[in-house]
Amino acid sequence: MAAYSCLQIEMVSLLILMVVSIVKAFQFVANLSRKTAHPAAKSTCKLMTHLGAFVTDIYLPQGKWNQKTVLLVHGMCPLGKDDPRVVRYSANFSALGYKVVVPQYQNICEFRFLPDMAEEIVATIQAVRSNLELCPSAMVSLMSASFSGGLCLIAAAKPEVAYSLSALLIVGSYGNIDTIFYRVVNDKITDDYARLIIFKNLIRFSSGVNVVLEQIFNQAILDLIPEGLKPSGRAKQCDENSAENKQFLRVQRDQQYRKELMNEIQRSPEAALLIKGLSVVGQIRRIKAHVLLLHGDQDPVIPAAESKQIYYSLIRSHCSVRLLVTPILTHSDARLSLQFGVAILKLIYEMAYFFRHA
Fold it and tell me: Nearest 10 degrees: CA dihedral of 92, 94, 97, 101?
């Protein structure tokens, strides 16, 4: 009788967890259409790690007590943690009762590719996990997207933090950096933003470090970012007749030149080290957290095939993972509409999986 009662209690507890998860998922998805963030109690501090201090925003749930913590890793936007989309998602999690920690990763803000970039995310996970005020349960969930999402997957597999992560929500990530490079060079991806960021980081392996050329690429990237998602200030002007500007224009306009550059870059040992360090699929076998992968079916920058690569890699490693390819997501945001009724229900269902474990 006692065993039967225990079984009943366990079943009721599981049912309650499922209902709460579905309610949270419904609220989260419903709030995706909001253009402004939920009111949230936000403070800024310095998160101390073994790699140094990270300026960090903390969102605390209002009138709710929750032992659970979400670390949100911003994308490649110069505003970083102050990106209005990041603020909106952080406040959204906070409204559901989560403590949300959002560090500023300067290398990501500055559109840099470095072979050990995931180590900064590992360091912030360790710092949050060991802070009882920020993370009473000593377990952290992660949310990120695009390039940063790939870094989070790499970080989540590191043995020093793998067992401290409960759930990952990764949106529109790449799986194999090599395939992204190939698609950009061969105009399979026509997005100028992606092309500029990639060549800004790789061209030094061909022509050497050139500060002026890097500044030209940086300004061109900033010129493509909508107002409100970049710092205010006057654009830096460059000499249109300079050798650096002529090389930049050739990279932009000449596909054959891009192919020649990439062939030269791929012969560089330093470039090979970078590609190995940033490739996701080969580094995620040891992930222990529950993973939800979301990807827009018409993502113009990173195709959904990349998330499928990640999904099958995790399946082969016997990880707990779910994948949803959906028309609701673009590369950088979500769009809710009545025409996506069935897709919205599917998104709520999959988000409930994340909230069951986060």
Answer: 130
